[in-house]
């Protein structure tokens, strides 16, 4: 039980850390790209990465603040995914 | 033409260099990830316990050769004379009799306990965490003790019914919600009789071959109604005291229990157990060379296993105990006893003999196998005999507390690991971006 707990924790740490850093990096890159190209599609893409970054921070906090876990439910995380899909949908359709 | 060829070769060389750089970059990254994770993944068992070096509370050490109770063979037949029990038991006793070593270990455990403001050798955090809610229903010759514990998502409860209608009998039922199955445990301990016997082979213990001179059965003996008192333990914990004795005052039984860890007679009694004192006063011996044995009987549907080191000993709560563990896949109950007895104010060793049998009964059209273990405590002859057994369960509160402690320890490591992995992820991200720019 203890070993399983440790492995589960380590998996979460790796995944959440990578989500947070990569989403932040991609958000920065997309913002810089928007500044250069002024393509409005990139605003939506940047927002998508920003949402992923916020999600990454929330998930990371849940690792270290056990009391915070009660607020992180599957529906709340699903709302983030829904917003991401919606923004990508707009970015794809935008001319 | 020549210029194009040179440009092409230069591009190829550049690509090869970049590919090599990417490979080296990823290998270095994997190496760094392995190093940063190794501190957390390596031997997580070392973090077990409550920070004082105790190991898994639900896993009392088991001697691989220990079949000494002879209970687990499933033969269903009574062991003749219980000799094999005794031989193995002696062997285990010898292995366990390095008292100095045990004493040092316990001392070390005690020294490791921090945050113990009341100086009862128990971590205050553990005391707060494992504190139980206890209810009692008192009757003249029957007591029901119900004890509950709840922390976070875990809870457990046990009930002990102590009655003296057909001799002293303690019925113990326990259940918890930590496991999806096998989360119940029940057993019964009956105090049956005193046996005056001639120790024919002079081995200091009662065996079936010995000649019985007299028996004093408690089944038909009248006991005085219970006496209840609230007392305070050595460390100031409120303890409940129940006492009863035979009308002729030869045999007395005292029970002590508390909602929290309490220190009674230099030993720690956990809230998931009951300390019992057997007191024999002025037993009327019929012959001068006879010895006295007390027969107790443990009845359970579960597996039982004799061990020379009790859970309390492992935890450093007490010393020199033997135990009959009642085990399911997930739970351990126990009936333990001190390996010494005070006879006329002198501490002497107790010899125990265990004989087991399986009795099958049919209840509600269902065949139930009960394991019945007769435990004979052979006492040195004397006027005043005081022996000290205990019964209880290794509640999930011990494991939950250990897990909570591990969680805390893991958390500290996790913060470091998380920061490390964030740095590595950043290096990976920036590395890929830089390489991409160069291409």
CATH topology of the largest domain in chain B: Beta-galactosidase, Chain A, domain 5
Instruction: Output the CATH class name of the largest domain in chain B.
Output: Mainly Beta
Oligomeric state, counting identical vs distinct chains: heterodimer
Profile the largest sheet of chain B: 11 strands, antiparallel
Second rung of CATH, namely the architecture of the largest domain in chain B:
Distorted Sandwich
Mean pLDDT of chain A: 87
What's the helical proportion of residues of chain B?
25-40%
Largest interface by Cβ-Cβ < 8 Å: A-B, 22 and 24 residues
Q: Could you name the ranges of chain A where pLDDT drops below 50 across 5 or more consecutive residues?
A: none
Description:
Chain A is mostly helical and 95 residues long. Chain A has one domain. Chain A is built from three helices and no strands. In chain A, helix 2 packs antiparallel against helix 3. Chain A starts with a helix and ends with a helix. The mean pLDDT of chain A is 87. Chain B is an alpha+beta fold and 439 residues long. Chain B folds into two domains: 71 residues; 335 residues, Beta-galactosidase, Chain A, domain 5 (Distorted Sandwich). In chain B, 28% of the residues lie in helices and 38% in strands. Chain B is built from six helices and 22 strands. In chain B, strands 7, 8, 9, 12, 14, 15, 16, 17, 18, 21 and 22 form an eleven-stranded antiparallel sheet that branches. In chain B, strands 1, 2, 3, 4, 5, 6, 13, 19 and 20 form a nine-stranded antiparallel sheet that branches. Chain B has a two-stranded antiparallel sheet with strand order 10-11. In chain B, a hairpin with a 5-residue loop joins strand 7 and strand 8. In chain B, helix 1 packs antiparallel against helix 6. The longest helix of chain B is centred in the C-terminal third of the chain and has 43 residues. Chain B is elongated, with a radius of gyration of 30 Å. The chains are: A mainly alpha (95), B alpha+beta (439). Chains A and B meet through helix 1 and helix 2 of A and helix 1 and helix 6 of B.
